[in-house]
Amino acid sequence: MWGIFLESVVIFQNYMGFHENGYLAGIYLFALLYLWLTEKDKRRRAIFVYAPTLLLLMFFCPLFRKVFVRLLEDSETYYRLLWLLQMSMVSAYGLLRLCGRHRRIGLAVVCAAVIACGDYVYDSENITKAENVYHLPQEAIDIAELIEPEEGRVTALVPADLIYFIRQYSTNIELPYGREMLIARWDYYNAMYEAMEEAEVIEAAAFTELAREYPCAYIVLKEDRQIDRPLTEYGYVLYGQVGEYLIYRDTQTE
Question: Do 244 and 165 fall into the same domain?
Answer without folding.
Answer: yes
